[in-house]
Amino acid sequence: MVVKIMQPASSSCFSLEYNEKKCASGEAELLHKHAIDEALGIEDTFRLYERRNIRTENLSFHMSINPSPGEHLSDDQLKAFVGELMEGLGYGNQPYVVYRHQDIDREHYHVVSVRVNEHGRKIHDFQENRRCMQLLAQLAPRYGLSVGNGNGQGYGALGIDPRRFNPTAGNIMEQIRVIAEECCKYHMTTFAQFQLIMQAHGLEVQERTGNTSQVVIRGLNQDGIPCTAPLSEAEIGKALYRDYEQRAMQCIGRSGIKQRERGRICGISASCLGHSTSERHYRNMLARFDIDVFLHRTRDGRIHGATFVDHSTKCAFKASELGSFRLDDLRAAGEGGQWQKHSRPEQNSSSDTELGLIGAALAGISKSSSKSQEKDMKDKKKKRKLKR
User: Fold this and answer.
1) Which of 75, 107, 160, 174 has the fewest CB atoms within 10 Å, measured from its CB?
2) Contact between residue 293 and residue 316 where contact means Cβ atoms under 8 Å apart
């Protein structure tokens, strides 16, 4: 069994709406209600709790429970298991609901609650995922369950690859939720960069018409063409624009400390450009280092910018942010330069020799960067001593 606690949203309504839509489509059912005021109903009960605390921004609690193949709990066992798990996490007296999902091959469950108690105090959530794993280790043997890893591999149990949207795999909304959560871990400072990170994962994100604080999402096929209907944040159960804004603000505040990551992209992109014989060849070489490049062109096809998305370090940077990387060299290659001089199709693939040379160059860049950082540290220590 794998249990995953989702990133909290500003309101539990997003998670509730996601699950209720699944129920309406016949892909899920409400299995259990706990401490819900029947006169108010589920949503209004949650809202009543949320209004009691105006300082807490992330109010929703949303957890998925995914039994391993061959594991099965009766409804009563599942209710008891969830009850003990919620009690251990501090949500035993909270209103919560349990949904059974059958939208993939394997049955799984979603639990939705609220992070503010009846007195308006926030439920203690320090190291929540770690405490959850410890509780699972205690509870699993009593219920005949095995314990899986909840650090992202749990989605693998659902057949979801967070690296790329798969339109043929089904479970579209759950895929989008998982991938969006992964993309919000990247270093980025603009919405345009976020869009390109999502695009690299097979998703198109656009600001909702007339509302710049929400987005709509569509899945892309292997050719980069939209292949799903537009989905709102409410439909996927995730306040995606808010999550992007929070992540971007974090990254803007520490943009100056990503020198090693910038140096990696700068070194690889410059070296690959020097060895490339076509735009496709250039992209393929970068892909071997887990980097995607997006070239920005004018209407007449001229290159005026580029954005690099490095999946190894989870960073996105514009070419202008990469210091010594020369955008003019990229323009020259694409406009009557080296890419036009070579046209043999076999040169679209990168050889091991080329990659070895690039790797050696990068080792030198890394070593130089480390020495530069050491020198900076020594200079700072000297300045501190002089001030004393």
Assistant:
1) 75
2) no
